[in-house]
Write a structure and sequence with these properties.
Layout lengths: L13 E6 L3 E5 L2 E4 L5 H12 L3 E6 L11 E4 L3 H11 L4 E4 L6 E3 L19 E3 L3 H6 L8 E8 L3 H12 L3 E6 L11 E2 L1 E5 L2 E4 L3 E2 H20 L1
Parallel strand pairs: 1-4, 1-6, 4-5, 6-9, 9-10
Antiparallel strand pairs: 2-3, 7-8, 10-12, 11-14, 12-13
Helix pairs in contact: 1-5
The protein binds cytidine-5'-triphosphate (CTP) and calcium ion (CA).
Length: 227
Amino acid sequence: FFESDSAKPLRGRKVLVTAGPTHEPIDPVRYIANRSSGKQGYAIADALAELGADVTLISGPTRLDASQNVTLRAVESAQEMLVACEETLPVDAAVFAAAVADWRVNNEASQKIKKQAGALPDLSLTENPDILATISGSVSNRPALVVGFAAETENIVENGKAKLDKKGCDWIVANDVSASTGTFGGEENQVFLLKGASTESWPKQTKQGVARTLGAHISDFFQSKST
Ligand code: CTP
Ligand code: CA
């Protein structure tokens, strides 16, 4: 027993975190994306590494630098993010904080589409794979703990609970991303942690604060599993 073990409760645990938006190409210069700075996901990766976990951060394009003690895998599209997640399995826990684009263009142009007055490009959309639902439903490789996010602009808790069921994950961190909260790109977040029937409302705090609190819950989960 080492004295530092109490400060590193996730030592020996492998964790994956997704973060940032995905970019779905229309042509070589244009894409469809979600609004996401990546700050919350990067803060979670950091907090879990701080607790001793071996963290792989699978990130879409952001302006952020990953900290030295996490392994960064940079991806662009949802399909690439899913492949990177599958290649990172098996893990003990997975946190899906990425704002994945729900749709992609299925007729991506290999050359830049030229603008022509009065004529719109013929874009056809198809649904992206749901990474969280896919990993939650994995039969042979499901992480012991799967945590999703629910970015909502109204009925935060109800919509979050519906996502918990629909995605088959263990917990949902539901947050209010309506314009008035300043969540997008901002430094603070007000979230609810939904664990089955239980709902915890956390005070508004920095994204680092949310990350550390979530890290404490994840540590408790593994601590109570092993005792
Ligand atoms: N998610 C994912 N892959 C997708 C879409 C979403 O892994 N293709 C994950 C997100 O990372 C998040 C959770 O699913 O953890 C919920 O994402 P959200 O966009 O809120 O839910 P959707 O099911 O896509 O529903 P909607 O956008 O219609 O609210
Ligand atoms: Ca979505």
